[in-house]
Write a structure and sequence with these properties.
Layout lengths: L3 H18 L3 H8 L3 H20 L4 H12 L5 H30 L1
Helix pairs in contact: 1-3, 1-5, 3-4, 4-5
Length: about 110
């Protein structure tokens, strides 16, 4: 199965988590939209987890994202969790990109 979809979803969800992790900006976004961005992040992480499972790629970033979306309503804890989750997702996507490049080089 093509691994590009889970890689793309990891980059998107990682960027979204990074946005929500910016001090004051992320909190303002979440509060001004009545916590809807957390529900959107939860849905995005679940979809990413499903595709990562189907494609056999790393899932820990998406699992951490699901946990983050559930507890991010707590001030400061949410910000730190968003930052950690963003890093995990982007590292996963980058490593997946490296693995895809190595597979192409050996063929």
């Amino acid at each position: 199965m093509n691994r590009n979809l889970s890689k793309t979803l990891k980059w998107i969800s990682g960027g979204y988590e990074a946005l929500l992790g910016i001090p004051f900006v992320g909190g303002t976004i979440v509060l001004s939209f009545a916590w809807t961005p957390l529900a959107l992040a939860l849905a995005l992480h679940i979809v990413t987890l499903i595709f990562a499972s189907k494609e056999g790629t790393a899932k820990h970033g998406s699992v951490m994202g699901i946990i983050t979306s559930c507890i991010a309503w707590i001030p400061f804890v949410g910000m730190i969790m968003h930052i950690i989750t963003a890093i995990l997702l982007m590292v996963d996507a980058y490593k997946q990109e490296d693995l895809d490049d190595q597979v192409v080089d050996t063929q």
